[in-house]
Amino acid sequence: MPPALANPVAQLALAAVLGLLGFYLLLPKPRLRSVAGGTFLVIAAFAVLAGFVYLRFGKPIESLLPDVLFCLFAGGAVLFGTLLVTNRNPARGAIAFAFVILSTCGLFLLLAAPFLVAATIIIYAGAIIVTFLFVLMLSQVTGPSDENDRTREPLLGSLAGFAFIGLLLMTLNLSAAQPGAAVADAPPLPVEPLTKADRKLLAEAAQELDTVPTADDLVKIQAAVKAAKDKIAEIVGEPGQPLSGATVFDRHRLFAQGTADAREAAFLRATDKLQRANVKMEDEAALATSVDGAKAAAKKLRDELALYSGYGQLPARNVANVGFVLYSEHILAVELAGTLLLVATIGAVAIAGRRKEATA
Amino acid sequence: MFWALVALLLPLAGGLLSALCGLARVPKLAALPAVLSFAAAAVLSLMVLSDVYHGGGELRFAANLGTWFSAGHLTANVTFTLDPLSLTMLCTVTFIATWIAVFSASYMHGDAGFARYFAVMGLFVFFMCLLVLADNFFLLVAGWEGVGLCSYLLVGYYYAKPSAASAARKALLVTRLGDVGMILGIFLLWRMGGYATDLSVLFERIGNNPPPAAEMTTACLLLFCGAVGKSAQLPLYVWLPDAMEGPTPVSALIHAATMVTAGVYLLARCAPLFVLSPDAQLAVAIVGGLTAFVAAFIALAQYDLKRVLAYSTVSQLGFMFMALGCGGVVSPKMTVMAAVFHLFTHAFFKALLFLGSGSVMHAMGGVIDMRKFGGLRKVMPVTHATFLIGALALAGFPLLSGFWSKDHILHVLSDAGETRMKYHNTYYAVFLLAALTALMTAFYTFRAYFLTFWGPVKIPHEAHGHAHESPKMMTIPLIVLAVFALGVGAVVDPITHGFGHFLDRTPSIARADQLYFKTTNMVHTEHEFNWTIAAISAVLAGVGILAAAALYGRGGPEKVPAGLGGLHSLSANRLYVDEVYEATLVKPVEGLAVAGRQFDSFLDAFARLLSYLPRFGAAVLRPLQNGLVQFYALGMILGLGVFLTVILVRSAK
Amino acid sequence: MISLWHFLAVGAVLFGLGLIGFLTRRNLITMFLCAEMMLQGVVLNFLAFGRYHGNMSGQVFGLFIITVAACEAGLALALFLTLYRRGKSLDSADWQTVREAGLPPTVDTDPLPRPPAEPLPPTLPVAGRLPDTFAASHPETTRA
User: Fold this and answer.
1) How many CB atoms lie within 10 A of CB B504?
2) Rounded CA gap, B256 and B267, in Å?
3) How many domains would you assign to chain C?
4) What letter does residue B256 receive in the DSSP assignment?
5) Within a domain: residue C71?
6) Is C142 within a domain?
7) ipTM surpassing 0.85, yes or no?
8) Is the Cβ of C35 closer than 8 Å to some Cβ of chain A?
9) Which of A303, B224, B344, B617 is most buried (CB neighbours < 10 A)?
10) Which of the four pLDDT bands, split at 50, 70 and 90, describes residue B496?
11) Do C14 and A337 touch (CB under 8 A)?
């Protein structure tokens, strides 16, 4: 590779220029349209981009199948996106958009979001694209027409788009760590999903918290909680450890600071109650309430553990997890989104409804 | 004191009432408030005069009515002074103004601006009284400028006539030139006198520590500049003949009796200052002498009766300045008395002469060119008689008022020429000049008289063939003024110097006298009447009258004696002074004005150019808003791209 | 080694392509689909970050995004229908009346490519000689 191109900035610039020219040639215009030349240039541009991504960020996933799938889906998304933008026939563009959706859904699967895959396909490919195609059929145009065969400012538009792409990738270039650089404090981590043995350990740890604590058991609960804590820490990593350089299946790093703090708080609440219960062991009633509190905290902790331990269980837990987070942390946004949908529906009906007046 | 202030404010009230009459569309009544207020003011000032006269001792009533403004070292107080000098002037002004107002009521009858005339006249009298009563330089300047303004308004009374408008402008601008010097002189005195602007305080301080001679001379000469402008002395006299464009009573009031005498009054008032600067006084005398001579020379060949009188005024003012200019070598009491006495008598007979010429003009239908009428003594007997009396007084016919005052001046000049003080040769030359001028005065006065009233009766056709004597309201003031011109000189006792003694009680004059005796170590001699000088002036007057009678006794067209044709045309063309001024001063200033206007329009163009820039920028940017939303979005993205580039470049560093 | 950045890069490219399409194409439907593609790029971004930070909020926001996209699609289609009823075409350049007063409208005057003419049905060349009358009125059929 020529040394000038080793610079990521140069690669990005080259890709941007090639892409700019390619799109300029590909966009439907009365003159200066060259599908062959444009295609060639666009392919070259995306090849350079792929090279940049590979060189800069390294192999995406270190086992073969996910890697291949990623390349397939990403390439497909970009290819069909180009088709959507440059095809003069809008119906064909809509079909290309459908394939874009399918490719991005593939990428979503790789990101462990199966529920979103389903939702996207249903809503986009099922509802939106179909409705668009109906509208396109209503307004069929035969032969060359202004809207299909002309573009507004092709050169500046392509320039703006590729400048934007270049700038965004430049940002990524500046913020990513160098490939192969050693990540400090990264303990050796297993890369497989939670094995059965791990799950069993977690389940046992959770189960230990299910026992009804008696006066004597409080000590045991303490010990059990401590043991559970240790086990979880062993499997999952210490709460409060900084996240850096995680791989896809690095479940130790999947627990973000937020959940780590929540977990820590749950631990503390449980141990605190147990400690207080420990102190007031003489008072039976207090013991009872403190034991109830400890039980409730322990139950909560068990649920959380069950939740997290189900993280590796695709796809069923994903829906539950999404629902859990959606309705616990983002309930306000849910309500607002519902209101938005209602208003949009009313608005669409009001705008597009048949008017009595003859203005067409 | 109170009554004096009332006398000061009455003419102002009268003027305002006249203006109101004009606004209320009853202009015919406008004369009444003016005449009544002037008369009341005259009566009050006579009352105050008699109070002061009988008061005895050194007299000065002063009133400090507070501070007008003050800024740092500069303080202008509202102070008035009632001493014999100011009271003399006050009485003269108000008395003559009264009779001129009566005359005007009939002369200006039927004119459209009747009310305006009396309003401005009232204002004028107020300012003149303010000028003479002021004890603070700033009040004096206020009165000075006020009379200048009213002179402009009255000379430009017939504002629709271009010659009148430009004459008014000329009067204002030329006197303004003198005023610049005067104000500079006032500030110099203010600084020298320890930052005082009250006249009495200033005189005392400067008298006690006289400043160096050069500074004093400069200050006095600068003050004299103002007098040169206002009293129409040599370089700045050119406005006075042109000011005859105004109505004739205006000329009588302003340009004979009151405004032009303001300069004389100023120098008389500032006598204690001038006494300390003999060089300045010499300059005053020389300027006065030259003025008197040049003006008399020009008057010899003028054919416009009013212009003859105007040049005569300039010449007589020159006489007054000649007298004042001797104050360094002769006792200031004498010189100031001579000048003020001449001012006093001149006011009467010159006003009389102007009113007489007004009467003639009225009868002749607006014609005042002596070549166009003649032999009017049969047509207008009263006018003829009073005019004769005035002419005799002006010429210095023995026993009339003018004779006594002119005699005083000649006496003072001869004293100055004879003393052993410095410059006495120059003063002697001035004395000879004055004698020659007196001769010329008599000559041109009677030339005018004979051409107007003798010879065959000739009425110009503008009079529509029915010239007659003027109505009573015009002749009565003539008669009154004639009586005064006849007798006022004798009445105020020239031989026993009653006038002089009265005037000597003015504190400023007394101080000037003290300073004179201190600085010159002259022996105080009693003033006695000099029969020689009296005889000389009588002879001069007689010779002039006889010469005029010989040449013009039969009236008629003027025949220039052979050999004097060159001088005659020089005199008739006013020594070409106006033309010289036009070429050297007026044209360059007009050129500057044109250049200024060009610069102004250049600045306008520049401002318009600046206004084009935003419009040009807008025209360049307007096509950006072409209604295509995608274009707008493109612009947004490009801008965002620039923004991001900047951020990335900065964070990459 | 992470491949968060790969997903982000794909998302950026999708967004950029959608941007180009939105800014250039004149057909309202195509414009809108390109806007939807921009949103897909954003969803990809959200999911990638969510996955790599172990946070469910990424997927949750992806859900919100497609909700909003659905609302947007409904309203946009209603508006396009209205515009089509008024302007009888789906061209965004028909609606430029918000321009500055006094500016002429932007009209593209390049001639559009003519559709290729329908090929003539195949004809057989004339064989043999035709009667003189026919040859006289069809000079092109003779070889002279």
Assistant:
1) 20
2) 18
3) 1
4) I
5) yes
6) no
7) no
8) no
9) B224
10) low
11) no
